[in-house]
## 1
Amino acid sequence: MQETMVYNEKISKVIDNINKVMIGKEDVAILSLVALLAEGHVLLEDVPGVGKTMLVRTLAKSLDCDFKRIQFTPDLLPSDVTGISIYNPKEMEFEFRGGPILGNVVLADEINRTSPKTQSALLEGMEEKSVTVDGVTIPLQKPFFVMATQNPIEYEGTYPLPEAQLDRFILKLTMGYPSLEDELEMLERTSKEHPIESLSPVMSKEELVLIQKEVRNVYIEKNVQQYIINLVRETRNHESIFLGVSPRGSIALMKAAKAYAFIKGRDFVLPDDVKYLAPFVLTHRIILTAEAKYDGRSARQIVEQVVKQTFVPIRKEF
Amino acid sequence: MSHKKLTNIPFIYTSILYIAGLLLFLEWLYPVDEVTDTTFLGIFVIYTIFCFFISILQVRWWLSFLLKGFGIFFILNGVYSNYGFWSKHWFSEMFADFVFNIEVLIARQWFDLSNMFRTLLFLIIIWLMSYLIYYWFVQVKRVMIFSVLTFIYITLLDTFTVYNADWSIFRTFVIAFLALGIVNVLKEIQSESLQTYRLSTRPLWILPLVAIVLFSSVVGYAAPKLDPQWPDPVPFLQSAVNGSGIGTGGVIQKVGYGENDSTLGGSFVQDYTPVFEAFMKEENYFRVESKDYYTGKGWVNSNDGDYVEQVDLDITFETFSPIVESEPSELVLSFDERANIPKLIYPYGARHVVAQNEDVTLMLNEETGEIRTEIDNDAVNLSGYSINYDSPSYPIELMRKSGTPEDEELVRKNTRLPNNLPSRVGELAKEITVNHESQYDKVRAIERYFSGNGFVYQIENVPVPTDDQDYVDQFLFDTKAGYCDNFSTSMVVMLRTLDIPARWVKGFTSGEKIAEDVNELGEDVYQVTNANAHSWVEVYFEGVGWVPFEPTQGFDAPNNYAVDTSNADDVLDAPEAPELPEQDLEKPEQDAQDVFNPSTGEKDSKFEFTKTHGIILAVTLLVLIGLMVWKRHQLRVYFLERKMKKQKDAAAYQDAYHYVLRLLRHKGFQKEPDQTLREYAIRVDNFYSTDEMGRLTSRYERLIYQNGSTNIVDDELSNLWKNLIKKILG
């Protein structure tokens, strides 16, 4: 418990850092941290200019981590992501030059603008925690955290991520526009010097890895696990859902809930955690039926409906 | 939920509601008139209205207390006292009465409570009810409980007493549903905190409600109904209660002297209310009257007979001939004020009466020996009198020798039997007497027959014969269990089958000796109660007259027989074991008039005591039930808290916490299924401006979501829990 408190201080410092840069985006900051602590990855979907990149940069800077950025373009090659072996004439042999995926915090900007081949290079790395180049398997660094962004407006020349790959991301977030006050405040703060310049790291890599380990020890009671399963199963039976959430989704929801509980200073998961996270974890893992789409219903709405239909456990068998 | 919001509701609505409560309560009072003998119903109703009126005005509590208390004493004064309200005598009278009754209460002599005290208790109950109904109807706006209780009360009375509740049910239905409708709207208004300006102060919106309720009532009243599927629950219940399977079971009655003996049988409860005290040297049976015609179910008189005035209060009625030796004696009877037998109660051989009231006339029925006590042709209960009598010693030798009576008319009258009397009764009588020659020996044989042969004396579980059963036959051959009426009637009938003239006599035994040697004459005092009402047998012996015999087990007639020198047997009488009740088979309400009615003057009780008591008891019970329903939350809280403190485990706390959820649900805080406890707690805490639900919830969360939480119940938690419940219930 003592350690948890120390880590919690660190976590709140990270959040404070993000708050300095990203005004009024504490919820997104916390959710990003949830993904980070749950050893997952985040997909940020929003229009350009709302601060997706800034968020990732702030996070990376606060963490004293190796920050890499990949700007995805249609002509980007897988080797641009993973790295490539180059012949070194001096040494007379091939030498591996690591790509940006070998960083700790990777920003994959506009991931849907590149070809599926390149996308999968990144996504495989995310899942396997390693990349294979020229038959050599190179483990990725720890911690390893990808924040991918995609632009929902431009469809021209994009390669939407297939649903099966979408669920490699533990959370899918949207930033949204800041409120009037927040935007004013933002102008105020950035008029002289951008606050990100003055940020200093508050958490080391090692600490982060330790925290990730700690998060796995957060306790989750049977009834809350049951709640997760009920939620997931509900998506599989819902009339508006063509394809429900996979078991990987259940695991993701549990992991995220543990991380969220940890951030909130608890060593056990509440149904509240699950309920709060469900839309972020489940929305991108379901495929709506054509009817639902024509009715103009969004996946988010359906997930909310699922949450509404599922009973929260309020008893324990003794 | 707070009571302060009450003020939002215009006075007129609370008044309408409260008046509905008053009308419902009056439905409780109306039957009092019919099922008891009170003549005070009007007073009770007026006092009820008075109490309700004071309550609705919402005057200060002390003023209301004073007014209502004053009302009670005003009524008591007016009804029971001849003194003025402010008179010193009235106060001392009242004080003495209270002291007496409190002593009686402590001694648990319920039957000795004075009428005034009983009236006082009843008025106090009315007073309390006015508060209770105000609470139910106006404060918490819960009408259902009282309405249902009213229905239960009325229907029970309708089923089990003479009270006819047809219209009462109809009225209750209309009032109760109107009240429910109004209360529902008012509750809605309160819970939604609607502004009252929306509510017109003219209650026009009630009209549709009235119309609907009236319409449905009328339709319901007029609509065809199925016949009762269960015609009359009373016999069923009785057989279920008696469970003996003997006959049909009987109505439980109270012991006492009754007029109507045409349907004998049924069970009794003892009633030790005093009837009179007798000052006498030796024990006597007190005769009141005889009956001569057996119907197969009971006794009636074949003709009413003529009443002859007894000149100078000299009794001309004779049961035995002058040749029987007798000893002049005297005894004094002093009656309890509650006794209501406007007849002379006299020993065998009575010659002359000296009454305290000199205006009294005695009217003798020469057939039955019944002597009415009258003043100006109105029956009166005498408070006391002395009787000079010749205590007879019946000569056994003479009786043995006595031949067939010469008076054919007398024989004919006293040997009559119903045509459908089963022949086995006569056969049994013959069998018993086959070895006996003289009439006296035969009579003795039959008398003795009942002391063995499987007969038992009991007053409970005695059946009433069914339509095709003969009372005597049932007793002799089926049940063999009964009380004096069974024994005496059976003996008379058996004697009659042998053509021996016999008749059935009613009166009292000598009761219990309560004091010895109280005056210079060396007389003892005997207390005779309702339980001493009795019936026995008189047999006619030519030359001797009518001689009493006692077939009932455990009883011995104190009359001397010349050969038997002693009346040692008498010792066995009265105080001994099964005191012999005379039952009267009348309906309970008639029963009331028989013994305990106001003797003289209007200030005496018009109550029949146990019934009033019964009603008070019923009301008290219902109030108790109401209290329990009202306090059910407190009770539940008490038990849950005890469990929690005792077991200190998670399961107990889980129950306790879920009880809070249930309470909140009743208060309108439904927890949505998808709502987490935390979200719910925030909502609740916001409403009650507290953080207690949040704290309770966070403890509970640890309990059910945390790993092996050691979070057992401590005092802090249970106090928190109790406080929150108080808040919710408050």
## 2
Amino acid sequence: MSTSIKRGNVAGWLMAGPAFFLICLFLILPFFMAIWFSFTDQRLISPNEPEFVGTRNYERLFGMSLLTLDAQTDESGAVKMKDGEPVYPRLRSYTRDKDTYPEYFRKRQWFTIDRSDNRRTFVLASDIVFLKAVKNTLMFVAIVAPVQSGLALLLALLINQKVRGINIFRTIYFMPVVISMVVVSMLWRFIYDGQNGLLNNILGFLSFGYLEPVNWLGNTATALPSIMAMSIWQGVGFFMIIWLSGLQTIPPTLYEASRIEGASGWQTFRYVTWPGLRNTAILVMIVITMQAFTLYPQIAVMTSGGPLDSTQSIVFQMVERGYEKQDISGGSTISVFLFLFVLTISLLQGFLTRKKS
Amino acid sequence: MAGLKLSGIRKSFGKVEVIKGIDLDIEDGEFVVFVGPSGCGKSTLLRLIAGLEDITAGELQIDGKVVNQVEPKERGIAMVFQSYAIFPHMSVRENMGFGLTIRRENKAQIKERVDEAARMLQMEDLLDRRPDQLSGGQRQRVAIGRAVVRSPDVFLFDEPLSNLDAALRMNTRMEISELHKRLGTTMIYVTHDQVEAMTLADKIVVLKDGEVQQYGPPMDLYHYPANRFVAEFIGSPPMNFLTAAVEQQADGQVFASADSIGRVSLPEFNFVKPATMHLGLRPQYISLGEGPDSHHRFEATVGVTERLGSETLINLKAKDGTKVTAVLPEDVELQADQTVIFNFDVNKLRVFAI
């Protein structure tokens, strides 16, 4: 008896072995290597041995300082003005002077805050591109997660009906999910084209030429929203199917009971459908958030982070540092940050949606 | 309070006709049970009354008004489902007050009515629990409570006891019966269990294949079943059926000759012409021995004996091999394969066309 169990275990391990080995090699090992690299100056190709550098990579990413300056005055003590704006001393005199101002050295202006009495606070950061990537990614998550999940729920409610040919609609809505994001991004580049793009043509046609063509991906104001819209369109079908599976677990008699009690459509949704979707909602929220944080292929194919860094994303920066700039330690640092950040948010979501007894 | 009138009600799902023209008059305050085997259309008929399904043809009146096109909530009905259909995320109190809450009644009044219903159903201690903390019987009580709170004109029950165990089923059955006595509201109850039908109903509707087989008080159906189907369905164990040739003698007396039990006179039978028919005899009417002279006697071989405690079921084999079941007193002792004489009152025989 005991031998058969033992033998069974050996056979089991042999069968699980290859997969287990591959998972270790390509998931678990790189995970720990990335954490280690983020504390070294490891480069992709380099003749020098990597060295331990402590938290220097993190300091470079997040290094920020505040510098408050008084506006320049002329001899009479009046504030110098240029184009209706007070004139401030040149930042370069602070950020390039390592000996006098080591805390500002090599930092660049991220944004400024005007104070009263002609003072201005300059927010300086050592890695502005990264901070922009973080901001853009957060914006992307904050808009895509709720809009995509809401839209997906709406579609799921629409196609959860016993109507002839409903499967055609299900298929149509699900189709973009099957197409690779890279392909979708290529196609949408044509749609968003500034000259003869489909979107500009349609808008021009519908408005009888009133709307001027917009260079959707070439404009800092429209580039990120355009990518958001496309991403929502591409992924909405997947979450629609998840919502749909949640909807179909709600027993039909609950709907019948609420109908007999006289509930309106909205009341039925509020008292029967939505509570029944609780667990699905948690799943959808967490998965959408995590997915949105890893925004990458759209950026790589459509804008490469531009124009003027308006579409930089965390993962895009990660890849660019690690492979384009061959700075593996820098890329690793970003990936560790992303991991901790997403983990925190997921734990927070889990905590906020926990079952209260 | 309201009576119902069903005239020529039909229901088809696609090409399949499930309800094939039903006419019924249900009086105000009556407890009516729809009974029949699964697939007979009894639940569909109830759902048509509730308004959960559209009526294909015919007319449904509740309290004198045609309600074919009326929404369920406007029909003055409340329904209790087999699966309870309690909202899992609401407390018992919220469940019971649901109908009032969505009608935006004021809170004090909701509380009062829920408390009153809870007191009536003796479930005040359950009010603050959640459905997952309740047993099956308690859940069904909540569902009944929710119906009571609506104070409907008609209660509809769709196999409410089917998910409960035997002991609980009996208790809840009695509670429903008491509820009916106390409220005096019209109740329509669907079941496949003839015991429930017999015990609860003022009137039973026996359905088969979407048609009414018989409609009447339970004991009428028991004693005078309209056809072989009703005879077999009502009563336990089921009625015995014996094939016999029915004929009339020159002196006007009607007789049935069966290979199984011999020649029996049928004093009450309304003879039309000689025919082969089925004689129906309830197992309860068969007694051991020769009995009074007016009784008919027959010989049979004893088969399996089943003791239920209060009574004993004996499976018999008549002369020609026809199987007959007899219900005998509790302590009767019969040997297997023994041939014994039994008797029954000929007036208890029922005759059915084949």
